[in-house]
Amino acid sequence: MSTFDLLILPGDGIGTEIMVEVNRIIEWFNKQDNSLTFNCEQDLVGGSAYDAHGVAITDAAMEKALKADAVIFGAVGGPKWDDVSYEARPEAGLLRLRKDLGLFANLRPAICYPALADSSSLKRELVEGLDMLIVRELTGGVYFGEPKEITDLGNGQKRAVDTQLYETYEIDRIARVAFDLAGKRGSLVHSAEKRNVMKSGVLWNEVVTNIHKESYPNIKLEHILADNCAMQLVRNPKQFDVIVTDNLFGDVLSDVAAMLTGSLGMLPSASLGAKDESGKAKAMYEPVHGSAPDIAGKGLANPIAMIASFAMALRYTCDLTAEADMVEKAIANVLDQGLRTGDIMQTGKQQVTTSDMGTAILNELEDLVA
Ligand code: NAD
After folding, report:
1. Rounded CA gap, 115 and 195, in Å?
2. Cα of 77 to ligand 1 centre, how many Å?
3. Which CATH superfamily is domain 1-108+268-370 in?
4. Residue 179 burial by Cβ neighbours in a 10 Å radius (0-12, 13-18, 19+)
5. Residue 123 bears catalytic tag
6. Contact partners, residue 87, CB within 8 Å, separation at least 6
7. Rounded Cα gap, residues 281 and 299, in angstroms
8. Residue 86 CB contacts under 8 Å (≥ 6 apart), including other chains
9. Is 143 a catalytic residue?
10. pTM score above 0.90
11. 126 CA to centre of own chain
12. Fewer CB atoms < 10 Å away: N or C end of the chain?
């Protein structure tokens, strides 16, 4: 009997619409048999929390997030809250969750469903069947290192400084996440840095090499310079299984990898924290896209990124590989049948609403267990 506590935070805009479809899938799992139960609580985050409580997330909701096995997050923001103070702006809710849960590892898969291979900017044969994962360090590096400042030099010139800073423990823990994940996938890790020109790259390379030697002899490790990694991603992306890299390179490389596979509405993500004594890690799962105010409330949103984020929760928090595979297979089958939301619409295919897409995925799940 497995029980998991989930905190559901739909957020704003299309966040609320796509979360309805995830809730339907969770209910479906709860009805299957009594060996698997999801206990769900729902709360407000972002603009909706601001409207109700004057903050982007309440302390009470944060408490629930800290207790949950995983947070399932929709999206926040929208023009309605453009004039809200900086501290209470919708994104502050997301940032507090990431910070208080200590989510240092960002996982961005790039999966190319065969039915959508022609939507990629690359040739079908290069991307069809692509299934790779970028593991990006999320809480250190040049975005946070001090000093970080612009100094007026007084002679009409200014000097801007950002500091790329990593300590051993930060590289150690992200490398372990990558090796552990590779062990559940293709057993290959590429570690990307710029050791040829950056000291942080030298340390990164050294720490990853040592951890590999000490603890992960069964995983293949390749070191790759980050610029070459960018090139290889568009030349031959299927050579990769897991790429582990720092905050800055990860930001760029994960966007490149994501766009190999088509629309924003298709891209899930996960953020993981450190494991506790029982081996459990704090975790949050969310689509890469935002609250899409331009299409909110019209039934146009693609729920697949959100549903695929839930599949990541099944895989990485719940260790339910078969169930995660089944949700991803249901998504692939629905796409094979030619069903498309507006963002991934192609000639000759059938355009459907957010809830039609959710229903079709549920029907596929029914067929897969039949
Ligand atoms: P966005 O991702 O919301 O939308 C960009 C474009 O992609 C829009 O045209 C939108 O309609 C489309 N799109 C996005 N998701 C889609 C989906 N599931 N189905 C179909 N089409 C989809 O980015 P934006 O327009 O720059 O930002 C809108 C708001 O979202 C802003 O307030 C921004 O701050 C916020 N935002 C939040 C997050 C988050 O919560 N993690 C991330 C990015 C942006």
Report:
1. 39
2. 9
3. Isopropylmalate Dehydrogenase (3.40.718.10)
4. buried
5. no
6. none
7. 34
8. 92
9. yes
10. yes
11. 23
12. C
